[in-house]
Write a structure and sequence with these properties.
Elements lengths: L8 H19 L8 E8 L2 E8 L6 H4 L19 H12 L3 E6 L5 E8 L2
Helix pairs in contact: 1-3
Length: 118
């Protein structure tokens, strides 16, 4: 199906780029291949996006801090810890939505992003 919205394309491209880069740099770091899935649905004037990968996943202590500024598990590889903080701000401030992360070590990561459509 086709889904068309009138919103902030720069915000969407920026947060999707950051999610994809994180999947490659954290989730698939030592893997030759991985799988990323993106799904979208529209209900009650809300856009719900599901983003997931089948990478390494993360510990609960890291998941709880993932949106904090300057939090990174890859500082030794040049990570700044700003990518997911930027994603959080784009979703919650620019798009007035919500974002939730779930993850289990060895089971990948999933994000649910809900954005109201005005």
């Amino acid at each position: 199906k086709t889904l068309e919205i009138n919103s902030y394309p720069g915000a969407f491209s920026h947060f999707f780029s950051n999610l994809i880069v994180n999947s490659f740099s954290h989730g698939f770091q030592d893997e030759e291949s991985g799988k990323i899935q993106i799904q979208a649905s529209l209900k009650n004037n809300q856009l719900t996006l599901y983003y997931s990968d089948n990478g390494r996943g993360m510990e609960e202590k890291d998941r709880l801090q993932i949106f904090e500024p300057f939090f990174t598990t890859a500082r030794h590889r040049g990570g700044s810890g700003l990518g997911m903080h930027i994603v959080y701000n784009l979703v919650t401030q620019t798009l007035q939505g919500t974002i939730h992360c779930s993850s289990t070590p060895g089971q990948g990561v999933a994000f649910e992003i809900v954005v109201p459509l005005f």
